[in-house]
Specification:
Length: about 280
């Protein structure tokens, strides 16, 4: 089983993907921060269905972490990540250092608006989407893929990246891939590794509550009442709720009527020291 090429410099990356383009290959990029789980690997499988060549980036992006957040402790599992990507026959791993991505004198930053200012993740992590948009724009310009795959678990991020690529005329199709879940419904996430055994047993409450709340809304309950009941249910399980919101599935604007068009129910809550997010269609 051949290991994917591991590239750490922009100059080497551009030579490699340049050869692919000259040969007429379509390229898909799967941006990750490593600590790969089955959800990431599904992104890779979807990428392979869309393109001739697949590049996976592994870069823990310091620009999207606030000083009090978990940059230093974020899980890093390089050897197992490379082995998993080799089994899927990924062509290239783009693994730059922070100094390669943000060299001395780096002074540019994208500040997205629209879905990045929806009062969801941005209300609790105001630095986050500027860091995400900046690094994703760099990754797209470095690899120049025709396709880039993002998981729907980070739904607001998916909408931010889609809008950014459109607004900046970056010629890439952003493809959202449905959330992969554990057997008990918990959305797969690298941060699930932080959960204690007791917390892990409680964590699927988020998904169950999303489904219950969506059912109430579909059956005609008032949106505000359904969301209030959902928040209470999550809190009783031991979470501290940041938000449980019903939003337009495209703009992420608040929704007051269950008869609205396409909608998304989104939640974020802390269980102990671990912050979990999830969402479902309504």
């Amino acid at each position: 089983m051949a290991k994917p090429a591991v590239i750490r410099s922009i100059s080497s990356l551009r030579r490699t993907v340049g050869r692919w383009r000259q040969a007429g290959a379509n390229i898909a990029l799967v941006p990750t921060m490593g600590a790969l789980h089955a959800g990431h690997l599904e992104l890779v499988r979807q990428a392979k269905r869309n393109a001739d060549r697949v590049a996976v980036s592994i870069f823990v992006n310091p620009a999207q972490f606030a000083p009090h957040e978990d940059l230093a402790s974020y899980p890093r599992t390089w050897k197992t990540d490379v082995a998993a990507l080799a089994r899927l026959q990924v062509d290239l791993i783009w693994a730059p250092s922070p100094a390669e991505m943000y060299p001395d004198g780096f002074a540019a930053r994208i500040e997205p608006e629209g879905p990045a200012k929806a009062g969801l993740e941005d209300a609790f992590r105001p630095h986050f989407f500027g860091g995400v948009a900046t690094v994703v724009a760099k990754l797209l310009l470095q690899v120049e893929p025709q396709f880039a795959m993002f998981g729907e678990k980070d739904f607001q991020q998916l909408k931010v990246v889609t809008a950014m690529a459109r607004d900046l005329n970056i010629p890439v199709k952003i493809i959202g891939v449905p959330t992969m879940r554990e057997r008990d419904g918990l959305a797969m996430s690298s941060r699930n590794a932080y959960l204690s055994p007791n917390e892990r047993a409680v964590a699927p409450t988020l998904y169950r509550t999303l489904k219950d709340s969506a059912s109430r809304i579909k059956s005609g309950d008032a949106v505000a009442a359904a969301l209030a009941a959902g928040r209470s249910e999550i809190e009783r399980a031991g979470f501290v709720v940041d938000y449980l919101e019903l939003r337009d599935a495209t703009t992420l604007a608040p929704v007051a009527s269950p008869k609205h068009g396409k909608m998304r129910l989104l939640v974020a809550a802390k269980l102990g020291r671990t912050r979990l997010i999830d969402n479902i269609k309504v």
